[in-house]
Design goal:
The protein is an alpha+beta fold. It has one domain (about 5-100): Ribosomal Protein S5, domain 2 (2-Layer Sandwich). Helix content is about 35%, strand content about 20%. It has helices spanning about 35-40, 40-55, 70-90, 95-100, and strands at about 5-10, 15-25, 30, 35, 60-70. A 5-stranded mixed β-sheet has the order 1-2-5-3-4. A hairpin with a 2-residue loop joins strand 3 and strand 4. The protein starts with 5 loop residues before the first strand and ends in a 29-residue tail after the last helix.
Length: about 130
């Protein structure tokens, strides 16, 4: 018996999500917890389900997620990115649909580093003329 399993990595800012998908009943586990337990807010769950609903794969894949870094919604976005990439491995024909929805784009914005001689990344200390 050959077990088909798809793996992908999704990222958003500082959140990194590793996704393992296999054919099943639609169970989603995030860090060994049920999806509803890990994301109590409806918005996070909706973000994660978007690529599955768009491609019609909702309820056809069991998904296990390992995610760390970032905040709750950043992690949800990273999971959405990872699921979208895993769906491409399941069926490459989903590429056009997912790309048009913007789910394959990685949000790479991160905090800008503090510069020397300044108070922050760009903010300076107050200038005193006298």
């Amino acid at each position: 018996m050959v077990l088909t399993q798809y793996h992908a990595v999704g990222k958003r800012r500082t959140a990194i999500a590793r996704i393992w998908a296999r054919p099943g009943e639609g169970d989603i586990q995030v860090n060994r917890k049920k999806l509803e337990d890990y994301f109590p807010l409806e918005r996070g769950r909706q973000l994660i389900m978007q690529p599955l609903q768009l491609t019609g794969m909702l309820g056809r894949l069991d998904i296990k997620v390992n995610v760390h870094g970032g905040g709750i919604l950043g992690q949800a976005d990273a999971i959405r990115h990872g699921i979208s990439r895993a769906l491409l491995e399941v069926n490459p024909e989903f590429r056009d649909t997912l790309k048009r929805a913007g789910f394959l784009k990685r949000d790479s914005r991160i905090k800008e580093r503090k510069k020397y001689g300044k108070r922050g990344a760009r903010a300076s200390y107050q200038y005193s003329k006298r």
